[in-house]
Amino acid sequence: MTKQEPGWELYRSFLAVLREGSLSAAGRALGLTQPSVGRHVEELERALGASLFTRSPQGLTPTETALELRTHAEVMAAAAAALLRAASGPADEVAGSVRVTASVVVGVEVLPPILTAFRRDHPKVAIELSLSNETEDLLRRDADIAVRMVRPTQGALVARHLGVIALGLHAHRSYLETHGTPASWDDLANHSLIGFDTETAVIRTLRARGRYFGREHFAFRADSDVAQLAAIRAGFGVGICQVGLGRRDPDLVHLLLGTLGFDLDTWLVMHPDLKSSRRVRLLYDHLALGLADYIRNGQ
Amino acid sequence: MTKQEPGWELYRSFLAVLREGSLSAAGRALGLTQPSVGRHVEELERALGASLFTRSPQGLTPTETALELRTHAEVMAAAAAALLRAASGPADEVAGSVRVTASVVVGVEVLPPILTAFRRDHPKVAIELSLSNETEDLLRRDADIAVRMVRPTQGALVARHLGVIALGLHAHRSYLETHGTPASWDDLANHSLIGFDTETAVIRTLRARGRYFGREHFAFRADSDVAQLAAIRAGFGVGICQVGLGRRDPDLVHLLLGTLGFDLDTWLVMHPDLKSSRRVRLLYDHLALGLADYIRNGQ
DNA sequence: GAATAGATATACATAAATTTATGACTAAGC
DNA sequence: GCTTAGTCATAAATTTATGTATATCTATTC
């Protein structure tokens, strides 16, 4: 007697429990009830011959094995989501939905008008925007199209280099009127600086070039790039943002022009399989044009 | 009322129908009955709002949309299979199963003794060997470890360069006794040649260097490399095989030494996630050693 | 041309899974 | 200390899905 392969529903419930942390919550998320999810997990444990969770009154905590299996279940879920998206409209028609991922600033400041223009031309296409500063995996189809600030490392992806987004030190006019305009890099030490909280690769690069300060110099610390931008706009102090964004707002002043020397290489990426999907392809081309426009204006 | 997300079982049945070509066959493959699978497909069609198959008395033929969705379902299936493999044994113990993919010759001629040695040391690890000349997708976890003859293009994979497998013209002693030994490359035209049926990239490269013949010159044509090797061993004529294999068999003669000038770059590849799996890691290292040994002997 | 094998589709009884309802337990807030 | 909200576990009720049996249709074979 061969061990019957477990049904895929079991994996779905298993993943939901991992994500939600309890049978009850998983049940709610899936539109099932707690006992059902409980039995699914039990059944999967029996089928795999391994215990997946240690039960406790405040929820289930996953075992080692459960954590190892999680990735695979996530892949299944991503594929299921991608399938749904692909099925959301006939590939030859321009209808359905497309999922785009980008950094938060780009998603909030740059993309909206571009997407609005696209929407005007193709009103049947719904757009999902997933904003995060961790890069989502296009090979896993976490998204259909990605705007990346790093050269794509994964081969086999369709990528287009859009150009370089210039970064620059900015401050609000109101701030400068009160505190004066920094005349040199060293002068910045006397100002309210806006910067990152945790040190990322970008910041280490900047510091290596001596062009940026450590965490302790910042009067306003936030990892979110939009939060920093908001702080600049609110006149909190001096911070870094994309030159293109600064130029849009007449009250923002670009300081110490050209001294930053650090730019964002910008790429548009998608999965090769999606080239045949009309709506994805159209949005890809549209984004390429719109972003190239934006980048050109920032230079 | 939000449209409820379709259950994963439906995808499973959908894929089975695509693979098997009929509801009945899919039912047999899944251990379900034809009406059940039929209902699954119906339900999925309703949930997606698209027709997936056109019914006919001789089976179901997939629609355009069904073919587009297939990839995603395949990804789900691959992930499910990978999950099962991962769950086949605790990651810290050396037990469970590992799936290795390689070309047919390598799998038939080179790997068996290496795997046998591994088995002796780790008797609890089951080994799945998937032999094919199309490269399986490691990112999709179609296999855990791959022996590749081309440099891996997909970034983010763990790859180790093992060296270069030398190829050479070979013939069986019995053939040479009857038909004489070809003295030069041009002389080959007077011999029974063993070669490929369809033209692959490898062959085009060879022909571009003027070191190989077209399809029409071959007296024995087979796309399978093992079949070619078998033909050489049977004394059918002159063909190409790995020097390391020729050297093992005292009756095989390496002809026109060093004139071929075409080699196989060899790589061992695995998914980075699997580094933490003890059994996969051990087999990876063992294969690296064993294959490097084999390659060294072929030079 | 009839018989066969393989396919889908439908009807209905049955088996299986889900929901509902309940109990027991834990942690936090008043 | 008691209430409230959260959890998992269990047993009975019900819905749901499955399997069986049958009809039908179409190529293929004898």
UniProtKB/TrEMBL annotation, chains A, B:
<keyword id="KW-0804">Transcription</keyword>
<dbReference type="InterPro" id="IPR036390">
    <property type="entry name" value="WH_DNA-bd_sf"/>
</dbReference>
<comment type="similarity">
    <text>Belongs to the LysR transcriptional regulatory family.</text>
</comment>
<dbReference type="Pfam" id="PF00126">
    <property type="entry name" value="HTH_1"/>
</dbReference>
<dbReference type="InterPro" id="IPR058163">
    <property type="entry name" value="LysR-type_TF_proteobact-type"/>
</dbReference>
<dbReference type="GO" id="GO:0003700">
    <property type="term" value="F:DNA-binding transcription factor activity"/>
</dbReference>
<protein>
    <submittedName>
        <fullName>LysR family transcriptional regulator</fullName>
    </submittedName>
</protein>
<dbReference type="InterPro" id="IPR036388">
    <property type="entry name" value="WH-like_DNA-bd_sf"/>
</dbReference>
<dbReference type="InterPro" id="IPR000847">
    <property type="entry name" value="LysR_HTH_N"/>
</dbReference>
<feature type="domain" description="HTH lysR-type">
    <location>
        <begin position="12"/>
        <end position="63"/>
    </location>
</feature>
<dbReference type="GO" id="GO:0043565">
    <property type="term" value="F:sequence-specific DNA binding"/>
</dbReference>
<dbReference type="Pfam" id="PF03466">
    <property type="entry name" value="LysR_substrate"/>
</dbReference>
<dbReference type="GO" id="GO:0006351">
    <property type="term" value="P:DNA-templated transcription"/>
</dbReference>
<keyword id="KW-0238">DNA-binding</keyword>
<dbReference type="InterPro" id="IPR005119">
    <property type="entry name" value="LysR_subst-bd"/>
</dbReference>
<keyword id="KW-0805">Transcription regulation</keyword>
